[in-house]
Amino acid sequence: MKKRTMQYRGKTIYLAKFDVIFKAIFVSDGDYTLLASLLSSILGITIKAEDITVLNVEIAPEHRTGRLSRLDIRVKTADNKHINVEIQLYDERNMDKRSIFHLSKLYTQQMTVKMKFHELGPAIAINILDFNYLPYEDYHNIYRLKNIANNDELTDALEIHFIELPKIPRDMIGSLKDFWMKFISAENEEVLEMLSKQNEVMDKAVKKLVYVSSDELIRYEMDMREKIELDYYSAMQGSYDDGREEGREEGREDGKQEKTREIVLEMKNDGLSEERIARITKLSINDIRDILSKLR
C-alpha cells in the first residue's frame, strides 16, 4: 500500500494523487477553475472554467468483479473536445490496452441518432501514472495516429497522454504544468509550502487539498476504499499461498466476493444508502440489492 497522508501545518491531509481526493479537488463543488488550469497546462491550450462540462467522474467498467475501480474525470469543452483524466497508482501491466479501450469509448459514445461523423469531437485521454511506464526520460509523452513511414498525422481525433510522476525532477520548476505535477505528486509539507507561494491558482489548490482532507464524508470514503484494497490484495495473496494451480482462480474470486459482501453490509449498517454504497464500491445498484437480500 502506498503512503496516503502527510502532515501540513499541524494537520494530517491526504495526498492529491489518490483518485477520491483528486476528484474532490477538481470537481466536487462545481468550481472548475482548478480543472481548467490543469487541463490547459497539460494540453497547451486555453480552457476556461465556464467552458467546461463535467459529464461524469468515470467510465464504468464493462466487467464488475467486486474490485475497486478508479475514478476518472470526464470533461466536454465548449469547442467539443472530450477529455478523460485518470490517475493510476499501480502498474497492472495493461496500461496500453486499458487506455485505448477507454479512449475508444470516449470517442464512440459521443455518437447519437442522426449524428454525422464530422460532428464527433476529438477524444483525449490523460493518464497520470505513479510509476514508470515508457522508456523515455521525459515525464510527459503524447501519442496520436500517424503514418509510421513518414510520421504524417492522419487525424487529431484520438490523442493519449502519459504523465509519469516518478520521472519529474526534484528541482524542476518552471511551467504551470510543472507546478501541477509537483502538486499532484507532493508528499511533504515543504513542496506544498513552495507551491502555495507561486501563484493564486496553486495557493487555491493547496487550500482545496486541505479542505477536502477534512471533509468527513471524503475521509469515510477513503477509509472504505483502503479497506476494499487491503481485503482484495489479502484475498489475492491467500489464494496464491495455496500452492496448487487448480482452484486458484476460483479461490481468488470467492475471496474477493466474500470481502465485498462484508464491506457492503458494514456500510449498510453504518447507515449509508444503496446509492452511496454503489458509488464507493463501484458495484451496480442491483448488485448491492442482491448482496443485501442474500445477507438478510
Strand and helix map with partners:
Layout: E1 5-8, E2 11-14, H1 19-27, H2 33-43, E3 52-56, E4 72-77, E5 82-88, H3 95-108, E6 123-129, E7 140-146, E8 153-164, H4 176-185, H5 189-196, H6 200-213, H7 216-240, H8 248-269, H9 274-281, H10 285-295
Parallel strand pairs: 5-6, 6-8
Antiparallel strand pairs: 1-2, 3-4, 4-5, 7-8
Helix pairs in contact: 5-6, 7-8, 9-10
Attribute tags:
296 residues; 8 strands; six-stranded mixed sheet; two-stranded antiparallel sheet
Model description:
The protein has about 300 residues and is of the alpha/beta class. The protein has two domains: about 5-215, no CATH class; about 215-295, no CATH class. About 45% of the residues lie in helices and about 20% in strands. It contains ten helices and eight strands. The chain has helices at about 20-25, 35-45, 95-110, 175-185, 190-195, 200-215, 215-240, 250-270, 275-280, 285-295; strands at about 5-10, 10-15, 50-55, 70-75, 80-90, 125-130, 140-145, 155-165. The strands form two sheets. It has a six-stranded mixed beta sheet, sandwiched between helices. Strand 5 (about 80-90), helix 3 and strand 6 form a beta-alpha-beta unit. Helix 7 packs antiparallel against helix 8 (about 250-270). The longest helix is centred in the C-terminal third of the chain and has 25 residues, at about 215-240. The protein is globular, with a radius of gyration of 20 Å. It starts with a strand and ends with a helix.
